[in-house]
Amino acid sequence: MIRKVFVAAVLIGTLAVSGCAHVKMASKDSDAQAKLFTPTADKATLYIYRDEIMGAAIKMHLLIDGVAAGDTGPKTYVEQVLPPGTHEITSKSETDATLTLTMKAGQTYYVWQEVKMGLLYARSALHAVSEATGVRA
């Protein structure tokens, strides 16, 4: 009985300390502007999004071409305007996920950052998705 109480106390304490992932969010105006999905004529626009609650207490770090590009939490996204060409997107997790995209100027690209159960930490996968799927998320 004492063991069960101890385990429950540890679990409750862990949950209280960990809370939910907190990522820096844009203002409501910036968010509304980004969700117009207006491409830039001489650049490529990239949206990387998480549309699930899985891994809610964990923020996922993103790199583009080896440079920090932001973090995602549940039901959030990162928007990046990039020069045309080939770019490597990395989602840092228990096992890093990498996706390489060749992007054209004036086009918008959408990547779903899927969160998966890991052994010690969450895992992720990156999926290029269609515009219809990306806008809907």
UniProtKB/TrEMBL annotation:
> What are the record keywords, sorted?
Signal
Report the residue ranges that make up the DUF2846 domain in this protein. 41-118
**Which residues constitute the signal peptide according to the record?**
1-23
Q: Which domain of life is it from?
A: Bacteria
Q: Which InterPro entries match?
A: DUF2846
- A Pfam family that this protein carries is DUF2846
Q: Any idea what this protein is called?
A: DUF2846 domain-containing protein
Organism phylogeny = Bacteria, Pseudomonadati, Pseudomonadota, Gammaproteobacteria, Lysobacterales
